[in-house]
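To whoever is on call:

I kicked off a structure prediction for a single chain this morning and the downstream step that reads the tokens threw a length-mismatch warning. I double-checked the sequence; it's 304 residues and nothing unusual in it as far as I can see. Pasting both halves so you can look.
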Amino acid sequence: MKNYFSFMKKYLCIYNPQAGGGKSKSYLSEIQSLFNKYKLDVDIVFTEYPRHSHKIIKETDLSGYEGILVAGGDGSFYNVLNGYMALENAPKISFGILPVGSGNSLSRDLIDGAAPIEEFVKLIKVGNTRAFDIAQVKMENETFYYANMMGFGFITDVNGTASKLKALKAQAYTLGVLYQTIKLNTFDLKITVDGEVMNMDNVFVIISNSKYTGGDYLIAPRAKIDDGKLDLIILNKLSRLNLLKTFPKIFDGSHVDTPFVDYIQAKTIKLETNVPKILSPDGEVYGKFPAEVTCIPKAIDLFA
């Protein structure tokens, strides 16, 4: 028996009880039952404040764990990822997603559609993993990482509005778009894509690593999580009416075929603006210009 238990797989679950406007708490009993059903040995640690996951990871001996499971939304995974990437000599470890947040966009690159939590627990139990690209963002005095997408301009303003409406889940993003459309304005952007310089009058830019954002929005239909590239979606100057006409196309990805959108795939993207702009990685509001974004191929492994 001693030898058997010494080889049992153990997991660390970092659980954000505030994800989804606090609705993630309602999934706790189900998740615990599923861990028992599939005989997964899991230590659950709850985050108590923003970026608490950084401290949890720093103070935990990860060598005793097979994987880190993130129970929350895209922002929860973002914080866990950055806590892990900040470690010196971080041990190789796999990541699992338990999507109980607002948008849960990243999870759709593992299982497309509104899959129940049990399907994601099954992925962890089976133990197969898939190499996953991430993005590195270098600012003047700081570096951070994201797995899903980062936006700025109009999209950051939308996220700011949506964050106040998280209890409405995916509908919060739609309401954020409608509200920010009323305040629509553009800004000058200098962007260098794999060495090629472009100047434009811009509404927003999204640099995506995966296909979806805001839950159901197919923002980057050509994105692949393991192709070594980031997908750059640029919305150029347009009228409020054309913005409202273009917005519904995000649900099926056809917005990239409109004359207002440029779609580029690249490995490195440098961003500069004439006015201060805040970045929005994985639904969080964090970071500022100038910034350089680089794809790190196959940086982490996800249970998939």
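Update from on-call: the warning came from a stale cache, not from the record. Cleared it. Sanity check on the structure: The two ends are 30 Å apart (CA to CA).
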